Amino acid sequence: MRSFKAADEGALLSSILQETTTEVLLFDAETLQIVQANPAAIRNLQYRLKAMQKLTPLDFLAPEDGRAFNTLLALLKSGNKRHTALNVHYRRRDGTRYPVEARLFCANERDTPVFICIANDVSLREATRQALEHSASDLRAIVAHIPGMAFQVMQQHGTLPTLRYVSEQSAQLLGIKAAALRAKPERFFKLIIKEDRDDYLARLAEASGGHLSFNWEGRIWMKDWKDVKWVSIRVSQRTSEDGMLWDGIMLNVTHSKLAEAEIRHSRAQVSALAAHVEAAKEQERLNLAREVHDDLGGNLTAIKIGLSWLMKHLPPEQTKLIERTAYLDSVVDQTFEAAHRIASNLRPAALDFGIVAAIRWQLQRFGRNTDIATQLSAPDTPVPLDPDAAIAVFRFVQEALTIVAKHARATRVKVKLVRENDSLLVKLTDNGRGIQPGRSDKGRFSFGLLGMRERATALGGELTLQPAKRQGTQVSLRIPLPALPDAAK
């Protein structure tokens, strides 16, 4: 094998300089005129070699970099430094600039001192750095404008969780500076009011992390402000190379919580008022039914007796008087029927025999008046309902049947009562056209549904409306009942 000679080394070096993407410039130490440049430098600076050999490196540098470049050259000339490095901007022939990371050397070429400048284009790296800076700046700006406190909890492998980051809004939200909260996350727990601490501790025990590493809502006491705040903690968990991370935000939700409480209070008042109105209506109906039955019924009975006496004492030849008296007697009978019907509508007497008997009576009347087939499925044993619940269930079925008669175009209605351990479920199903989204007639019976829903709410129950399995609509009412005795279960 032949030995590697100096000529071979020169050829190899020349080949490397030709193929590398690093810019190499060789220039005279005295005049600074460029002697040689590799293809990468020619390509990036956009000059031909002959044109470049008439220039100096200072012609490529930005004005603000020229002084530093000359200072470094002087140090190399004096021998104080053998090589040096600097970051500057090169200027291309078309005027555009790009950042380079350069190294300068002093050498001898055929006993003539020369400088060698090796430069790498760091445009991509610089752009990436600036993008990261902008990204970090944008992120800080976003976090600064969040109406709450951003934070991050970290748990490295085999260590306890730590509060890795807290935004500056902690001072405004909690009255604790970010650095202080980050050093002692347990300071947040001390702010929680006594009534909410057990819930927080229970969630803390369930979580695999530490403080602020789980979703939670509760109240804190701001001693300096003598005020109670509602705060909401929302976190998302993710895994990183360093361990487990919880990215979270804490928001002041006091206003929304107070608004929710006000809405609940208002709704409770409306429900209580609706229940009171319904109770008053039912009581008034009961009073009217009694008056119709007792007073009007008594008067009609007296008239009936009087007409009967009159019929017996009229002379046979008074045919017209006898006919008129018979007509009045039939009118009294019709009035008896009307009074009985009005009293039944106001307060069905069948309710005295239980809810099942009352609904059976109601379905029989409904079938006679509408020619719609009815079917009842109910428990054999009596359903224990207090008077208010019984009349509410009866009115629910009554209103549902009214809606079916007016809107459903059904031919069959099924009512099912199911007694469960602690509730009564009443289902009414028809085979009509059903309730379809967007249909124009939906609002015509929405007040009836609203009334049924208010009745259910007043009893602590629930009303649901949904399409039937095959065709039509199913409306269900579930109300609480006293628990069954163990022997009846």
SS elements, strand count: 15
Question: Could you state the order of secondary-structure elements as H and E?
Answer: HEEHHHEEEHEEHHHHEEEHHHEHEEHEE
Radius of gyration: 47 Å
The spatial strand order of the largest sheet comes to 2-1-5-4-3
In terms of topology, how is this protein built?
Blueprint lengths: L5 H14 L3 E6 L5 E4 L1 H7 L3 H4 L10 H16 L4 E9 L5 E13 L2 E10 L1 H22 L3 E9 L5 E5 L3 H5 L3 H6 L3 H5 L2 H13 L9 E7 L4 E13 L3 E10 L1 H60 L5 H28 L8 H16 L2 E5 L9 H22 L3 E8 L3 E8 L15 H13 L3 E6 L5 E8 L9
Parallel strand pairs: 11-12
Antiparallel strand pairs: 1-2, 1-5, 3-4, 4-5, 6-7, 6-10, 8-9, 9-10, 12-13, 13-15, 14-15
Helix pairs in contact: 10-11, 10-14, 12-13, 13-14
Please characterize this protein's 3D structure.
The protein is of the alpha+beta class and 489 residues long. The chain folds into 4 domains: 13-126, PAS domain (Beta-Lactamase, 2-Layer Sandwich); 146-252, Beta-Lactamase, CATH 3.30.450; 259-346; 350-488, Histidine kinase-like ATPase, C-terminal domain (Heat Shock Protein 90, 2-Layer Sandwich). 47% of the residues lie in helices and 25% in strands. The chain has 14 helices and 15 strands. It has helices at 6-19, 39-45, 49-52, 63-78, 123-144, 170-174, 178-183, 187-191, 194-206, 254-313, 319-346, 355-370, 387-408, 446-458; strands at 23-28, 34-37, 83-91, 97-109, 112-121, 148-156, 162-166, 216-222, 227-239, 243-252, 373-377, 412-419, 423-430, 462-467, 473-480. A 5-stranded antiparallel β-sheet has the order 2-1-5-4-3, with helices on both faces. A 5-stranded antiparallel β-sheet has the order 7-6-10-9-8. Helix 10 runs antiparallel to helix 11 (319-346) and helix 10 crosses helix 14 (446-458). The protein is elongated, with a radius of gyration of 47 Å. 20% of the residues are buried. The model has no long low-confidence stretch (mean pLDDT 83).
